[in-house]
Amino acid sequence: MRLSNLADYAVVLMSAAARQCGSVAIHAGLLAEQTGIPGPTAQKLVSQLARAGLVVASRGSGGGVRLARPAAAISVADIIEAVEGPIALTSCVAEGRHDCSLEGNCKVQPHWGVVNGAVRGALADISLASLVVAPEPRAPRPALAGDEIRL
């Protein structure tokens, strides 16, 4: 499972916006420059994020991009869905999709909704605000039998 580049860039752009401005407008070109995201891609993302109600974009002097609500109230799931649409790990959890050749005989299909909900829930539990602070160092995992030891 992998996010598209656009979804990844949207999270990067939103994180930069939260770090730089919060509720103060910042020029999209400056966000593009700071993140390394190409200008046209940044503009496209700003449009998609604005349509989803995550940012407010205004033109003219004093214009720019600002978060539509506090970073703590925006989740990673919100950002991904603004670009990708609803999170659906398989076609059988997507609304109205009936294009699986195994449909009707699949014993796993009834469980995909639970799996999909868990993944979406995990992404919904990560706020944009948490992405703008340095992560806490993770404790090393204990060695397991069969682990290779390198010197």
Automatic annotation (TrEMBL):
Q: Which InterPro entries match?
A: SUF_FeS_clus_asmbl_reg (IPR014290), TR_Rrf2-type_CS (IPR030489), Tscrpt_reg_Rrf2 (IPR000944), WH-like_DNA-bd_sf (IPR036388), WH_DNA-bd_sf (IPR036390)
Give the top-rank taxon of the lineage listed in the UniProt record for this protein.
Answer: Bacteria
Upper lineage:
Bacteria, Pseudomonadati, Pseudomonadota, Alphaproteobacteria, Sphingomonadales
Q: What is this protein called?
A: SUF system Fe-S cluster assembly regulator
